[in-house]
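Audit log entry. Action: structure prediction of a protein-small molecule complex. Ligand: S-adenosylmethionine. The ligand was supplied as SMILES and no pocket hint was given, so placement is left entirely to the predictor. Protonation state taken as written. Sequence taken verbatim from the request; no trimming, no tag removal. Recorded inputs:
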Amino acid sequence: MFVRLPRKRLEILLSQICGFPEPCASSEQYEISDTVAATMLFTAATYGDIEEQLVYDLGCGPGRLAIGAALLGARHVVGVDIDSKVLNVAEQNAVQLGVKDRIEFVAQDIKAITAQADTVLMNAPFGVQRVHADQPFLQKALEIGSVIYSLHKASEGGRKFITRFVSELGGRISFVQEMPMALPATMSFHEKKRHTIKVDFYRIEKQEENV
Ligand SMILES: C[S@@+](CC[C@H](N)C(=O)[O-])C[C@H]1O[C@@H](n2cnc3c(N)ncnc32)[C@H](O)[C@@H]1O
């Protein structure tokens, strides 16, 4: 029987992950924090959406969510990112953490994915640089996944928009929870060593008739 890692242990392992080699501001290459990643992964695991499941991580970057899903017992994980350089780092991270045998990283625009997944995890671009950059991610997630765990920039307008958009795509939000997320300074224009933003964490289910 698979014994789930304690949350603290998961966070420690995730903290060993190497990040973006050359983070690009216009593509919003920010990494999810270890704490928020562990919250998303543990919540999904508690709902039974990780263990023995086929999990996709859309816009996986260095692979924190993909690798975390493998560590929590996913049957197979696919991490997709348009940036092939960061996928080399993700591969190394997976080797380092001993889960490479259950993860594949694919260099592809998420729009081109045609697979079907049990669970989709994602921390996509928030749309700060390009308005609604998260829309194609939500669209693809609802097309390929039965259940989606997704992070978005917290705002009242954003919640209204996502609620309507998800419903139009045949999804239903089971919960949304605001939480703080620490972002280290990774871009040349960042003045503080670290700052904290507010994010909304969503669980979205595809409605039965659309499955
Ligand atoms: C905010 S970063 C998050 C990275 C990672 N999920 C994490 O949380 O650490 C968003 C990622 O989406 C990728 N991305 C942006 N547009 C994409 C697209 N159309 N197809 C695939 N990946 C894309 C970027 O290269 C970047 O790695």
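Audit: result stored. DSSP finds six helices and seven strands in the chain. The CA atoms of residues 162 and 168 lie 10 Å apart.
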